[in-house]
Amino acid sequence: MTPNMTDYAETYRNFQWNIPPAFNFGGDVVDYFARHADGLALIWANDQGCEERYSFSDMARLSSRFASALQQRGVCKGDRVIVMTPRIPQWQVAIVGCLKLGAVPIPCIEMLTAKDIAYRVQHAGATAVFARAEHAPKFEDLADSLKVRIALGEAPGWETYDKAMADGRDDFAPVRVEADDAALLYYTSGSTGQPKGVLHASRAIHAWRESAINWLDLRRDDTIWCTADVGWSKAGTSILFGPWSCGACVFFYEGAFDPAERLRLLEKYRVTVYCAPGTELFRIVNEDASACDLSHLRHTVSAGEALNNVVGQRWHAMTGVPVLEAYGQTETLMTLLNYPCMPMKEGSMGLPAPGSVLDIIDADGERVPAGEEGDIAILMPNPQMMLGYWRDEARTQESYIDGVEGRWFITGDRGIRDAEGYFFHRGRRDDIINSAGYRIGPSEIENVLLEHPAVQECAVIGAPHEERGEIVKAVIVLRNGVSPSDELARELQEHVKRQTAPYKYPRAVEFLDALPKTQTGKIQRAALRQREKLQYR
Hints:
By secondary structure, this protein is of the alpha/beta class. It has a domain at 434-536: GMP Synthetase, Chain A, domain 3 (2-Layer Sandwich). The chain is built from 16 helices and 27 strands. Helix 2 packs antiparallel against helix 3. The protein is globular. The protein starts with a helix and ends with a helix.
């Protein structure tokens, strides 16, 4: 398609959401394709050389069995279910099975510690869990809460997945799920306190397919590989909901990251659409791709972190395919897109997705002129928008502001909009750290560090990093009589790794005599971040 701003403007202006009154992704998408347009839905492979292939009819049958098994064990519509697996086909089976039942899956990464898991189970009021047997010890203190425990493998007090599936029925009838019924719960880091539970309705799952059409550009004959971990919302949209809503095939790989192997797999499985974070592309562009046939790759996208312009240029030179970035959040999913049919601007977040009204606003909820910095905000209503933060109505309401045109959701990101409508990021309003696509709340790490007997006080910030965008850095004031050392820094890093998910540990540790504070004694993380930026230059 020829790039044309007029075409975009007309499409955007004429777009209308078509959200049905009820929507069950398992029945209305997976079962639909199984009955009417069956084809390859999933190709799974791992770094041990194993491979499995599943059609939509396979997934329809397996997810029905899982839904039936949960129902037989007392799980009902609205119940929350922890789903914690690696990148294996059983993840799709479990997520779709929960949705067919009307249960609310909570996707989790396996790196979570017992402490992380306990918070999610207790905060969400989860009553069931599906995980690999080797992770069962992380749940051993939660037996009273988790009445249903299904494991891949054998674990004391858990039922095996094989046994549960044998009890399930292929003819399970998906329950009716209203458009505004709760469907999916993600946990995402906040700048203060514990992770936030972001609750989405079934209407959002239906609406997310628009980004699969407009940004991922998916067609029925495509094979998409999105490398996001399954605990993140990006995985839901680009590994499951988006692709399968378009009838496209998903390539799913379980294995350690190796840049040369990424290129080999792109060639072997004839991937046509590749979705990867900037950190991943940063390492791949240093590989020699001359021996790989990537002629079938027609589309590359990136999200979750800013893409280095040089990396994007090198990927384009290597493959002949540009990288189209998009902006979104767990609360909203993709709302600013760079389109295949549109000219790109270097460093731009893109243009608003059809059906989404975004602009830069001031503190009073008023739009600001082009080129002026303000808050990136989304005008309500929008079916992609979360129902709210689980059990936190105050925080939910704090995310909105009323203006003359209506209610705006404040994303927490600052930016500008140019005269042609392209958005450009100018930083966060809060202290969230974005490291290699992982959103990390500083207070979680600070609380862990303060438990160490050597630490008097501390501040955790994001420090600029060429490859990861940012890394977690801990700035620490030690207790009297404790001396700073490289050995102590390593000890503190290991302390954090033991207490929380390993990706959160501070890759840099600095000891100071005092931290910058406001007149009221509040630590000024912003001052520390500014100091880092000046040193980075």
